[in-house]
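PROTOCOL LOG
Step 1. Enter all chains and additional molecules of the complex.
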Amino acid sequence: MSHLDAVLAHIDADRDNAVARLFDLLRIESISTDPAYKDACRAAADWLVDDLASIGFEASRRDTPGHPMVVGHGGAEDGKALLFYGHYDVQPVDPLDLWDSAPFDPRIDETPDGPVIRARGASDDKGQLMTFIEACRAWKAVTGSLPARVSILFEGEEESGSPSLVPFLTDNADELKADIALVCDTGMWDKDTPAISTMLRGMVGEELTITGPSKDLHSGMFGGPARNPIRVLTRILADMHDETGRVTLPGFYDGVPDLSDEIKAQWDSLDFDADAFLGAVGLSVPAGEEGYSALEQIWARPTFEVNGIWGGYTGAGFKTVLPSEASAKVTFRLVGDQDPNAIQAAFKSYVESALPADCSVAWKSKDCSPATTMPVDAPEFALARDALSDEWPNPAVFVGSGGSIPIVGHFRRILGMDSVLIGFGLDDDQIHSPNEKYSLTSFTKGIRSWARVLDALSRA
Amino acid sequence: MSHLDAVLAHIDADRDNAVARLFDLLRIESISTDPAYKDACRAAADWLVDDLASIGFEASRRDTPGHPMVVGHGGAEDGKALLFYGHYDVQPVDPLDLWDSAPFDPRIDETPDGPVIRARGASDDKGQLMTFIEACRAWKAVTGSLPARVSILFEGEEESGSPSLVPFLTDNADELKADIALVCDTGMWDKDTPAISTMLRGMVGEELTITGPSKDLHSGMFGGPARNPIRVLTRILADMHDETGRVTLPGFYDGVPDLSDEIKAQWDSLDFDADAFLGAVGLSVPAGEEGYSALEQIWARPTFEVNGIWGGYTGAGFKTVLPSEASAKVTFRLVGDQDPNAIQAAFKSYVESALPADCSVAWKSKDCSPATTMPVDAPEFALARDALSDEWPNPAVFVGSGGSIPIVGHFRRILGMDSVLIGFGLDDDQIHSPNEKYSLTSFTKGIRSWARVLDALSRA
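Step 2. Run joint prediction.
Step 3. Record the structure below.
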């Protein structure tokens, strides 16, 4: 029996314990975006430090001005150096009344697609990061070591703009630098087909508040001559798209590449079922730019979205108020060589030039990040793909991703290394939504997958 | 000394007691729009019943499916029959943190413009309705009776669409019918010039919720092909006005009259200071339809306003959600012969026809009411105007009003009587806003004004 076979057997035998450990982590309410959960974020970090130490990692909690980082080092004395990244913070749980069970009371639910782990963070990203820890645990248990030099970085601010990340990477570059990074925050192509994400959209995020009158007014007394900031805001946001779904911001499409015929052919071969993808969430028609397939709209086209809007009276009944303020949270998803800073500046300039008399705007910016394209010809990508193909029913594929994983750009810029993005989430995991889940198969075969990938990369 | 002079002297001597009684009423948190305050609304009704009974009215609380009515009868055995109307319910107090003192802990604040009564409801409408009760109290104390037959109707749902009002008026028409109604829910022209409002805008109110995806989605996974209902809503609302500020709804201006030269001349003579009116709330430019003065925009032109909007993530930080729903509360203010039902239907039709694929809309309607124009040639109007002119530094004026007082239309339609709209609010009373106040002068001279008006109308 090879080392790897013994490790895989150990993983299978230890499954229930692995699930129990994940449940412990899922019970910690580590919502990073809401300051009320600061202590919970720290508790999650401490839990991870203790768990890493229990399997022989030299692990520590590293405090930051925000939520702490967790860093661990372990494994072989020499050989390939890997840095694994995940995040222990989770999204808020509102609207809470749409959850069928308590978001921080994890449970196994039987579903038509098999058993799932149900909890906030089950898929994004606690379940995913634990697949890697469990793979390491098994390697250590069976062989006493790891097949490569492994460092681990867990962040607690991924869902809240990662304000501490760049300073931390910069200050600890020598400690964290490796040959390649492994990032587990993405998904499978489908339940039988593992995927390595090689194109990621970037992001620009802004919160804007438009102020008109100096106080809330009565629409009977002032309706007509008083400027209504909700009206101003809806006009500004509505004008961000033309009737074909294109974003109207000047210069927005600078740096957006046309898809090569080769990539188009590869994506066509995936037989993406847009009807099923949209149908699962109650939709039937791709609503993005005209002339692009749903898959292209997600992976290869940039977007502008309003993620939240609020102003005036929003309680029960009616209140004929003309509010003083109206606000929105918006994000752009970027592709190719779009420049996040230029787009942020263009958006602010557009909004400011669109303000009528007596209105002003205030801004809160989210960290922005460019899109990323991986060098898929590097050997690590083929080795990882083959290792995944050994584990799952179908061979692994290289795919795009509509999401933004800013860490990948930071690793390249600050630590000079590329990232192999492997994850076991499924499209219906409902991350960021009520009833988030992680397939039990994703978890168990995810652990086995990392055991294989560690073995494979030791030969890179 | 005439009866009236003795009554006025009694009012002056009793001022502190009158303020104390108003404070008792202001302490009751009778927010009608929020079900949590149901008991408080009933307590306010009971307080009024007791107070009316204490001055010899045959008074009772009349329960309804919503908040109760208060009805009282008193005064002369024959002569002119008057029905006084006011409302004891108040607006919600949010945003609470913008109040300088507790909204339900009334106090006298000294201001550069003199002392004011500070509390939610001080002006709208508890302070106003108490001016009439105190005038009756003084007449009773001095003469043992009232100079006319007086009935009183207090409502507790004025700020929440008055759902029980029409059924109650219909069921009790014989009891409530009078020669003319007196309504105290309007304002002075300025602090020295009393006003009788003879034109009122009507109202249509709708809450709409647009649904796109069946659940909240992650904008990384779905951004592009997924329909964002906030985007749909902002487009629909933005398209309700053209670039000149006109409402674009088909047929919206049917029944909107041009102002007669006579009314224009009368309004011009008022020397309305638009700069001061807007400047007091941080504005400088009338934002309504081009080609109309600010006063015309308030009194003579219809409007469409968004009073509240919400959707997606509105908490601290960012959440890259594509929400399932987005909602808005909107109101139209109507003038002339605009048909509220036709406008409601046109708005619903417009929204439904503007929905893209995969979206639906749900509605909650507020009671609608047409605009009203009073028969100012009837003798009661001249008598009331002269009585007010006797009390205040400047003669009383007939004015328009941007607000909607649906009761006036109901009184005409159900009880066959017109209304004399007299009130002592000032433009800066901040009704419906934090720090609502009522000038102490409005209160004390308001009481004296009603004492005079009662006397005058007994001669109609």
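Step 4. Note key features.
The longest strand of chain A covers residues 202-211.
The first helix of chain A runs from residue 3 to 13.
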